[in-house]
Amino acid sequence: xxMNDVITGVDLLATAVFAISGALAAAQGxxxxxxxxxxxxxxxxxxxxxxxxxxxxDSIFWFTRTEYLWICMxxxxxxxxxxxxxxxxxxxLLWADAVGLALFSVLGAVKAVQFGAPPIVAVGMxxxxxxxxxxxxxxxxxxxxxxxxxxxxxTAAVLGAAAYxxxxxxxxxALPIAIALAFTLRACAIVxxxxxxxxxxxxxE
Amino acid sequence: xxMNDVITGVDLLATAVFAISGALAAAQGxxxxxxxxxxxxxxxxxxxxxxxxxxxxDSIFWFTRTEYLWICMxxxxxxxxxxxxxxxxxxxLLWADAVGLALFSVLGAVKAVQFGAPPIVAVGMxxxxxxxxxxxxxxxxxxxxxxxxxxxxxTAAVLGAAAYxxxxxxxxxALPIAIALAFTLRACAIVxxxxxxxxxxxxxE
Amino acid sequence: xxMNDVITGVDLLATAVFAISGALAAAQGxxxxxxxxxxxxxxxxxxxxxxxxxxxxDSIFWFTRTEYLWICMxxxxxxxxxxxxxxxxxxxLLWADAVGLALFSVLGAVKAVQFGAPPIVAVGMxxxxxxxxxxxxxxxxxxxxxxxxxxxxxTAAVLGAAAYxxxxxxxxxALPIAIALAFTLRACAIVxxxxxxxxxxxxxE
Lengths: 205, 205, 205
Hints:
8 helices; membrane (chains A, B, C); mainly alpha
């Protein structure tokens, strides 16, 4: 019970963070306040919606728990007023996205595990929950998807989801450990510009 | 019963209108007749399909009622032959899209309300039904999504869906009133070039 | 029983072929090994996943049968190592895509027919199964979707799906005949550059 409360709290937090990242992307595109709400909401609930569709749950999470929708709308409208206070929107967007990535990759795996998914499916669901919202956001805004950027992004989501999937039957601390691992890897990737090797020899370029 | 017949009739009309708008977009891209059918069908049933998936209905509407598919195909093929008669395809496309937007935003809310969705979800479903088909159409054709254009577009869908959701328990005229409101707002936006204020001060630009 | 084994075998083969085509597209974009896996998996299971969602099956096919996911990952990683051996990646990609197109268009119709879908829906499901994976692949990579290319592509998928849907109650050979028809048409389109007539008179251009 307590554990579920913690999970719900983290889930709402991650939703707000991703909604902010969606609204900030709308700010970069100079959209109107409805565009902020639209992108905030799509980014905030897009990943979890796809996860629920693919898991085949009886009812998508925001159908009964409308607080997820209100949080997306509230965070988006708040961003409309607060975004001008930030000097560098793209930097805030980058870090908001990193926090959301860590939280959602693990929570997606949590929900899939609760639903009885095999480990490989749980990892896939975690990665999808964490990346699908940003993917739609970037596709609609015609931006290079952060998903395909050179830095380690999907890798961090894989790490978070896999860590939870592997550890959850051994320790009660699987949730915070997995989130910390995913965030640390993504943060290092941003700060130290870590990359996986690209396909093709340098000589080819 | 009668009400349901009216709703079905309006729904088929909106499907045909959106299919035409999809086929006209294919005409702008100079695609072949199969491209017309493809874009006509995606635009015509895309929004309702996503709505049904998210509502978790037992069976997507066009699975049993294949007349929706035939109407999309028929309207697309008809557009192939008739489009050359129009001087300005983009103008016809704009207005076909406006009619479809008004009809579908309200009908999406109608179906969600019938399904027992909370008001905020019903409004969201209306907006989604009205915009998702065009969104795929524009993304696939690499056009600037009309959804993100400067004029009031999503706002009109929100107005139509919200008006029906609020009024349907008070009056039998909720359906035509909501459609008229959504269409009037969208029409004014097109004619008078109405916009919501954009993010960012003019001085920034 | 035997028939189902054949279908499963062909399905796994088509999945591997499409996963390779996805990984080759990642190679053209010079992505890292995780990008290969991501695009390989999306392309390999994307079409079947949409088909299952729209059919409303109880459980998406790869939820219980995780071998589909492993095959996508294996084929993608293998492509990472083997792609440098090919002189012309784009040519291999083109033909891998043609094989996958023929197999999936027919198999999508097979599954829909087994599920009791009306003929027009079965054809639509076949086309979707065959094209949706490549469509996401190309959209994400910002490539002109092969789907919208001038050559006959969707037409081949329609032919394969329609042939199976029409023939399956008359002959046990519907599966291989339909696959052969779809592949032959697509192969002819590639070799002889077959096209459907485009919209608009030449004089317009």
